[in-house]
Amino acid sequence: MRRGGFRAYWIAALCAALCITGRAWAESAGALIKKGNDAFKSGKYDDAMAAYDKASVDAPESPYVYFDKGTAQYAKGNFTEAATLFEQAGIKAKDERLEAMSAYNKGNCLFRESERQRDSDLRKSLEALKDAITQYQQALKLDPGYQNAAHNVEVSRLVMKQILDELKKKEDEQKKGQQKQQEQADKLKDLIKRQEDLGTKTKDLQRQSPPDKGARARDLAKEQDKLKSETQKLADEQQQSQQQSAPNQHSPKPSEHLKSAADEQSSASKDMNNASLDSAGQHEDKAAEEMKEALKQMGDSSGAGQKEEKKENPKEEKKPQAAKGQPKDKQPAPRDETAQNILQQEKEDREENQPSTPGGYAPVDKDW
Q1: Cα distance between residue 190 and residue 244, in whole Å
Q2: For residue 327, how many C-alpha atoms fall within 13 Å in the half-sphere facing its CB?
Q3: Nearest-angstrom CA–CA distance, 138 and 146
Q4: pTM (2 d.p.)
Q5: N or C: which terminus of the chain carries fewer CB neighbours within 10 A?
Q6: Burial of 357 per CB tally in 10 Å (0-12, 13-18, 19+)
Q7: Model confidence over 270-293: pLDDT tens digits?
Q8: Do 269 and 231 contact (CB within 8 A), yes or no?
Q9: Where are the domains of the chain?
Q10: Neighbours of 200 (CB within 10 A)
């Protein structure tokens, strides 16, 4: 499914109208905040952070300083650090407007972290996205007219459905791979049995030495050639599976043992045609040993070399938690996060969160 087709997810910012008693503070921290804001607008985020850090010494409890630092970290792409700072800004906020914006911005950080995890770990990406939705919902709880938060909830739920679909596809492919691996293991067990039976026939023929020993040895050679062809085919299949599942793995592979077995089988066939049954038997024994080692490495199970990911069980998903430090009476209600109910749930949300009066906080850049 196409990714990246949604519009930008705004990071909320505000003018830090710092109302702290004491002229000395205004002259020091206030000047540092202005210096940081100017640096931010010029794209000098490290300089902005340095100024905000100095301001936090004079105003360690100011939610605006935490908010500004979070905005600078977000601009630098440090989403984890930014999320922590926005959380602190929300905890220390004295008004719901700043608390709502802090929750919204933390949601954006989590959304970006979800994007970052998507190529490497779909489940971590999904969890980050769920946490982002929780933050957007918290922002809407504090400010039902927060249109950008409502928009980002909807976008996040659509992305969540994409991730759930990707997980399902990956799980189906994994099951097919495990089934194929089991089929190959069963095939190899059959080849091992046939190779051991052929080895027994070779040893019996050597001991008995009947008048038609040469003809019977040639018959065994034909049987050995057939086994060799099937072993080589299985070796090729194993090599292909290995390249698809773990192309960079350099440890011994089942295909290598199967190829060695095929070489031993070829040598055994030549010796049989030359009536060298003792040598042929030795090659047959080595072939069986290589095949058994291949089976051992395959794991002789449908999950050989693979660990099945825990299936996403929508009924067991965690209920969203309120952000740390937020009052209990502002926690969002439990949500049903199943793929089937995503769009219907969002429709209900929009109806439930319609503001009684028009308005709401528009997304703005950091503009002081």
Answers
A1: 25
A2: 11
A3: 10
A4: 0.57
A5: N
A6: exposed
A7: 999 998 999 999 999 999 999 999
A8: no
A9: 23-145+314-352, 175-298
A10: 12
Q: What is the DSSP string of 113-145?
A: HHHHHTTT-HHHHHHHHHHHHHHHHHHHHH-TT
Residues comprising the chain, all counted: 368
CB atoms within 10 A of CB 76: 14
Q: How confident is the model at residue 103 (pLDDT cuts 50, 70, 90)?
A: very high
How far is CA 70 from each of CA 54, 86, 116, 171, rounded to the nearest angstrom?
A: 15, 6, 18, 37
Reference 300, options 174, 189, 141; nearest CA is 189
Element (H, E) at 233: helix 213-245
The pair of three-digit structure tokens given for residue 69, joined into one six-digit string? 């630092």
Task: Measure Cα distances from 179 to 191, 192, 238 in Å.
Answer: 19, 20, 13
What's the topology of domain 23-145+314-352? 1.25.40
Cβ atoms of 269 and 262 within 8 Å: the answer is no
pLDDT at 178: 86
The whole-angstrom separation of Cα 123 and Cα 169 is 13
Instruction: Give the Cα separation of 350 and 135 in Å (integer).
Output: 16
Taking the C-alpha atoms of residue 280 and residue 223, their distance in angstroms, rounded to an integer, is 13
